[in-house]
Amino acid sequence: MLKGVVPRDFCYVSDQRCAVVKDAQLTIRSADLSAQISGVKETVRRLGDIDDVLHARVADRLEKLIEDCLAALKSAEDASDRPGAWQQLRAAHKKIGFLSSETLALTQGALLRESGVDNGFCALADKLLDHFNDIEKRLNWRGFTILAETAFLGEVGEVVRLRFPEIGIWHLPVAAHEFGHYVNPLIRVEVRHGIFPGSRSEEHTS
User: Fold this and answer.
1) Residue, of 3 and 50, whose pLDDT is higher
2) Which residues contact 97 (CB under 8 A, 6 or more apart)?
3) Quick one: how far is CA 118 from the chain centroid?
4) Rounded Cα distance, 103 and 65, in Å
5) The dihedral of CA 140, 189, 187, 203: what is its sign?
6) Coil, strand or helix at 162
7) How far does the chain reach from its first CA to its final CA, in angstroms?
8) Which of 64, 83, 193, 204, by CA, is between 20 and 30 Å from 6?
């Protein structure tokens, strides 16, 4: 054997070992992500224990997102023997991580509401946003409001965060503003496809 030349059989065995290690790593990571999804399901269930009304408002959407995460994970597992499996697993991990943090935030927000820290402000904000939603049925908003460090709209459960401790009646317009982030894409779709209801152009054509 020439010095410095690696035998072909050794390379073959080495490649096999690398493939086995990668498959094992993929399996372990996949199992971990599956456990995380189970944790999300349990968090959603606990949200129902805390406040069944709030749970009912977001349960369908959260269930759909959980199904999306399961589908993404299965797609990665099915591709375990093909190139790109890790890329698909990372994509599934991103989805699951985002959903996990959002469901945890929703549960924490529900606990704060139950404790009375908001003095009923969130329930009042819910009624305001429900009123906007009832005016235009196609919005189909099913979220609710919770307290947070800053005000923003969470995309996962369509839940509006309201900045604590700014929870006086004069801060209700902030809830309406954040709700506008949910409404805005729907309005833009309407405009692209014709006249938006209530516009001056609609009045002229009627």
Assistant:
1) 50
2) 36
3) 24
4) 11
5) negative
6) strand
7) 92
8) 83
